[in-house]
Design a protein that fits this description.
Layout: H1 3-6, E1 7-9, E2 16-21, E3 26-31, H2 46-68, E4 77-82, H3 93-101, H4 105-123, E5 131-136, E6 140-141, H5 143-150, E7 153-157, E8 161-163, H6 177-181, H7 187-196, E9 199-201, H8 202-208, E10 213-215, H9 220-233, H10 235-248, H11 253-267, H12 272-288, H13 292-297
Parallel strand pairs: 3-4, 4-5, 5-7, 6-8, 7-10
Antiparallel strand pairs: 1-2, 2-3, 8-9
Helix pairs in contact: 2-4, 3-12, 4-5, 4-11
């Protein structure tokens, strides 16, 4: 079978572009596929979240069937990447503002819970022992950084910016940041990062231990392939290490759901000043991706 035959793209999604190499057990999820044709914000819009969750579940079911059928003898890999010039700019601030102004706790909690389910699935290897890799070739902010942190391995290219700026509007990142940061650095360092709201370069995060592999611009894809080849040489050891990690450093879905309720209740207390800051960031996101009409209509 040729490489062209092995690689195929699932056509049923709008915001997500999955590319699968089933022979090697490599499944790539490219976010923001819709932005290639139309301008918009490269954030976790509801449609993107829903498509990620749908793909995760469908892929997990297939891999589970393969394992039961004895057809998969090597470890599978799921790679989270982006079709945009950024990895992901985080939560849908435009939606947040509307829900907070309307006092819609159920709407905000429903959105947050969907986000938590998505990042927890990457952290848990889809429940089938898959190895998750974040390929960060553009900025990852807020929830985008949380998504990268949820993966087992973070591959980042040099010069990329990442951070948790939610404190700018008096909020904290509540969809996994604390839980995932504390698996990589000390809790007091995690709190410092969350409360100072600084944006760091990928080079700085590599030195801090928050990025696993740092490579020059344009070499991220090759680095991901190197990680996959390395893991496939030791599939049993890698699979066992995932089990050991989940025992020694568990991050449960229940823990994350409880934390995100604190996030929702905190968000609903935000005043007009904080919401105006969010709205300014939304306009900046529109301008960044060329949607000047949308940015102007919100100005």
């Amino acid at each position: 079978m040729s490489v062209v035959q092995q690689l195929h793209c699932a056509p049923r999604y709008n915001t997500l572009r999955p590319v699968e190499d089933t022979e090697r057990g490599v499944y790539r999820c490219h976010m923001h596929a819709d932005l290639a044709a139309t301008p918009g914000r490269a954030c976790f819009k509801t449609a993107l979240i829903n498509e990620i969750l749908h793909y995760q579940q469908a892929l997990a079911d297939r891999l589970r069937f393969d394992q039961q059928d004895g057809g998969r003898h090597s470890i599978s890999h799921i790679v989270l990447a982006s079709d945009s010039d950024v990895f992901n700019l985080g939560g849908d601030l435009e939606l947040f503002c509307r829900l907070i102004r309307n006092g819609d706790r159920n709407g905000l909690l429903g959105y947050a819970r969907q986000c938590v389910r998505g990042v927890h699935a990457f952290h848990a290897g889809l429940g089938v022992g898959a190895h998750s890799i974040a390929l960060v070739q553009g900025d990852a902010l807020g929830g985008g950084f949380e998504a990268a942190l949820s993966c087992h391995t973070i591959v980042a290219e040099e010069g990329v910016n990442m951070g948790l700026p939610e404190v700018l509007f008096d909020l904290f990142p509540g969809m996994g940041a604390y839980s995932f940061l504390c698996k990589r650095i000390a809790p007091h360092q995690a709190e410092k990062i969350m409360l100072e709201g600084n944006v760091y370069s990928s080079d700085e995060l590599y030195r801090m231990g928050l990025v696993d592999i740092l490579v020059p611009r344009g070499e991220g894809e090759k680095a991901v392939d190197d990680v996959i080849r390395s893991n496939q040489r030791i599939p049993h050891a890698r699979a066992a290490m995932h089990r050991v990690r989940s025992m020694a450093q568990p991050v449960t879905l229940e823990e994350m759901m409880s934390i995100t309720e604190v996030w929702v209740d905190t968000a609903l207390q935000l005043g007009d000043r904080s919401l105006r800051t969010m709205e300014r960031l939304v306009r900046a996101q529109y301008r960044r991706h060329g949607d000047l009409k949308e940015a102007g209509s919100r100005g």
